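Minutes, project check-in
Item: structure for the 254-residue chain
Input as provided by the requester:
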Amino acid sequence: MLIDTHCHLDAGEFAADREAVLAAALAAGVGRILVPAVAVGNFAAVRDCAARHPGCVAAYGIHPLYVAAAQPADLAELRRWLAGERPVALGEIGLDHYVADVDPQRQEYFFVEQLKLAREFELPVVLHVRRAVDAVLKQLRRIRVPGGIAHAFNGSRQQADEFLKLGFALGFGGAMTYSGSTRIRQLAASLPDEAIVLETDAPDIPPAWLAGGRNTPGELPRIAGELAALRGVPVDVLSAMTAANARRVVPGLC
């Protein structure tokens, strides 16, 4: 069984054909899909998506690119959802230093407060770490949480090792399928077996063969094939390995 550890199946891009998209993914062998929220306003959509669709599980959190519209009261609302819904993880949270017009101090405030909630509720976290790996690691060392996943990882090998020491796995998906993504492909090929989980980030980060089109969880088997080829192992071995890793760092995926 394949596990997609990061898929925004609740997104508007799937409004017209969500059932068909999910059916295709399930038929292709994707048995679990982790659907992370991005803001308080889509918590209900994520919950409903997980409740209605077999194999889907929810995570709740406030994404760093959504903190500009967030209020401190949203953290209290997140606490209520964590207590009432008991999700498998807290996320998508983190830092994004790529987008220039997002206040870094505001991002850090919401990130730190959500790490504290993850620690309190003993939940793994789903991390967004774009151009901010060291800053994210700094806070993870300070506020210890029960591990989780560094989504769409694109750091160095040294940074990867630091995440592993903290109980995290690293997410690889569509970006790895581009021949020009040299660093990501080298990491995907050389990291220890226990380091890697699969993801799509659908509808975003489409693999090379979609030519910028909409990504879906049904692309995960082909992404797994690309990773298996990079690592020189059979795809069924790779699928079992990454699924076991996903269950280890996010036990609610079992």
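Outcome recorded: The mean pLDDT is 97.
No further action items on this chain.
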